[in-house]
Amino acid sequence: ILRGVNLINGEGAPPLGPIDIVIEGNRIASIHNVGNPGVPIKAENRPEAKEGDKVLELEGHYVMPGFIDMHGHFGTDDQGVPAEYVAKLWLAHGVTTVREPGSFNGLDWVKQQQVRSASNAIAAPRIVPYVGFGQGVDGPLLTAEATRKWVQDIARQGAAGIKFFGAPAHIMQAAFDEAKKKGLGSAMHHAQLDVA
User: Fold this and answer.
1) Can you tell me the distance from the alpha carbon of 184 to that of 156, in angstroms, rounded to the nearest whole number?
2) Which of 28, 141, 147, 187 is the most exposed place for a label (fewest CB within 10 A)?
3) What is the pLDDT of residues 5-27, one digit of tens each?
4) Is the model's pTM score more than 0.85?
């Protein structure tokens, strides 16, 4: 239970508080208004702590929703920065969900991190794995049929979406159409190759 916090709800309104927030597992279970600023907290409005609960007295502190990083790469250990370090940096900066828009360490690797994060085996945000368009295929996707099959394959492997880099219109149309059928999201890399 987070006791006596000021809640910034992210909707543009002034902070609410004091508030008690009950967290169960990794989720907010309930939010309780326990008073008004500058006056004593109403004890009768407080949620009761059960045996084994951890209670943090946080009057004067602020709580706000976590940030969602829509474009965050883990990088690789051979770059000299372990993935675990990157995940902890995201958390330290308030990022509670990250879309990994390419899974360039491999979809299997990113899916493993996703499972480990969800089970609290590692300290990391929630992970949403996207796959770079055509990843894992030798050469470019040249037909609508091959494109649709690739999208079906990555959906079956657990990708949440596709990061596109550009392709001929008929290939993009096939990919978008199949992605929509499979419930996959999409993102586009906008290269500025001719900009000085």
Assistant:
1) 11
2) 28
3) 999 988 999 999 999 999 998 78
4) no
